[in-house]
Amino acid sequence: MIELPDDELDKLFRKSSEEFDPTYEPQDWDALSKRLDQEDGKRPAGWWWKWVPLGLLLLFIPAGLMMYYSSDKLVADRNKKAVSSTIIQAEEAKRKADITERSNGQTAENKIVNEETKPAGETEKLNDKNQMAQKSENPVSPPFEKNEVNKSTKTLPRSRSKAGGVYLEPNRSKREGGYGAISFQENNQKRNSSVTEIIKTDELALVRPSKTEFTKVKLEKSETEVPDFYQSERVENGIVKARIQEENRVTLSVVPLEHSLYNSKLNLPLPEIPEQEPAEIEQAGKQRDLSPKLAIRLGYSPDLSTVGFKNYSKPGKAASLLVEYAVLRKLYIQTGIIGSIKEYRANAGEYELKKYVTDIATPSTIDGICNMIEIPLGVRYDFTQTARSRFFAGTGFSSFYLKKEKYTYNYIKHVPKSKYNWEGTNTGLALFSHLNLSAGYEYRISNKFSLLAEPYLKVPLKGIGYGKVNLMTTGMWLSVRYTPVFK
Amino acid sequence: MPGYNSAVLQELLDGCLRKNRRSQELLYKQFYGYAMSICLRYTKSREEGKEILNDGFLKVFTKLETYDPERPFKTWLSRIMINTALDHYRQELRRDVFDNVEAGENVSVDETVISKLSHEELISLIQKLTPAYRIVFSLYVIDGYTHEEIADQLNISLGASKSNLSRAREKLREMLSKINIDNYDRVAR
């Protein structure tokens, strides 16, 4: 047993401290690595964020195309089911006028008999429908061109169904869920069945769709026979009285308001409705809705800036406020303001470095973070314009004002007194320094608002900023477009 | 090229200057033991030591531009670790969270028992000291600070620094003696 003097004690602990080597624990580095990421402003899985714009692009464009084509297909299918290949030929109808004139007399008489023998409830229904017809604006469906059939039968929301004179289920009363616009067919047995006049000829079956003109109905099974879905009642003087099943009711449930049945025998008042060409109305609607003169866009985009498509760093961000003015129906002039933060890395050779930097040592790479204000001036052209969607492309030029620049110089080997960074504010204006190229898809969500996805590329025409760097930028605008309506 | 640092180390430091994560990891690995041994003798546990270690390395990676490569990196690193530990001590001091260690019995120490103690066990004895004793003992005995520097760093008087050192030595002796008695008892049974 001995007493341990101070110097011996100190020596003992000093030696232990110097020789003590704690074992490495990887989780300690993991903890520090996360803190370093936070310090550098990097997000977890930062590499993934670089591909977000491309991912969104791949998502939006196929989705847009799918919606565009599926809506057309849907309309076509509905037309096929509802119309069953209806063709209108006025000339043909005139040619057959003689036949029908002779038929009218007898048919009218038959109908009058039917009407007189109808129960009181039925007559009330008829009167109701007639009154509804008077209230409606365009109760008479015009003859359709073959290629217009698809457009006119496009599904519209019930609230907008009167646009362009189109009515949904016009032969159903409002009580039954329809509009009751032009329904004067007999309805004597089943509630959902209807009767119309069909004139059977060698090639066609003719129905009376409006006023004095007849509609030629192309028969499905045989061109010379009434199809099976008409349950034939009788044939008199070439007129087939047929009952039409519910699924085909809309197609053939048209009887003219000027029919002698109503204006001569029953003395029912006929509505005086100014005739309007639906095509013109539709056209006017299109002009107003699809080509507003002025629009405002508010957008956000990830900003991937690079010098020569290499050394991508983490994405910056950009926000835009753009104004568009239509000089032609499909051609817009665009301008506005874009604020962006661009982060990039470039080789030293791609900068114009100051002498005081290169005199000591030339950096290998330079990291830049720049706050910029961009003034774009360009045009946009709509390749397709439909009620809901558009595909467009744009081009133009951008001028940049650099509000703040911050550069970090990276060296392969440390050299004493090397410059490691530079920072400056309001460092210059570069007029028309970039060429803008873009293409995109716009989807209307309402009359005034639409959503846009627009990938873009800004190609440098000259160097900008303190280092005069040729900065290329890509990204994708995700915008909301507002079209104010001026009265 | 400064002679203090090897080419490999210089390469790592350059990578760290470029914020290359791989270089940072390699540097961390290489100096983990050295830096951790410093941190442990200024703290009461490994967890606390780890916290100071990572705080210190964060300073290394973010302030590497200020490192003068003409001086040894190890010296710069140890200064950072010690300063980080002192910052931590000052924060703890403000919170007044320190407790005292029970004094051991006043007995002599058997050298043969001491020689069998591992470095880790000896460091753990330092960790058992009160923070004020631990800091002064580590600064003076192991890291070579003078009492003037210690007094200045810890904002205490010169006499307090000397007194703390003296008491720290006394406590360590007591602890070593206790280990000695425990071992003697174990052998006797």
From TrEMBL, chain A:
Bias (Basic and acidic residues): 112-128
Annotated region described as Disordered, given as residue ranges: 98-191
Keywords in alphabetical order: Membrane, Transmembrane, Transmembrane helix
UniProt biased composition (Polar residues): 129-139
Record-annotated membrane-spanning stretches: 51-71
Listed name of the protein: Outer membrane protein beta-barrel domain-containing protein
Organism: Dyadobacter psychrotolerans
From TrEMBL, chain B:
Species of origin: Dyadobacter psychrotolerans
One GO MF term: sigma factor activity
CDD domains reported for this sequence: Sigma70_r4 (cd06171)
Coiled coil: none
GO biological process: DNA-templated transcription initiation
Keywords: Sigma factor, Transcription, Transcription regulation
UniProt-recorded name of the protein: RNA polymerase sigma factor
Residue ranges occupied by any RNA polymerase sigma-70 region domain in the UniProt entry: 27-93
Domain named RNA polymerase sigma factor 70 region 4 type: residues: 120-172
Protein origin, superkingdom: Bacteria
Pfam families for this protein: Sigma70_r2, Sigma70_r4_2
Annotated PANTHER family: RNA POLYMERASE ECF-TYPE SIGMA FACTO (PTHR43133), RNA POLYMERASE SIGMA-70 FACTOR ECF SUBFAMILY (PTHR43133:SF46)
InterPro entries per record: RNA_pol_sigma-70-like, RNA_pol_sigma-70_dom, RNA_pol_sigma70_r2, RNA_pol_sigma70_r4_t2, RNA_pol_sigma_r2, RNA_pol_sigma_r3/r4-like, WH-like_DNA-bd_sf
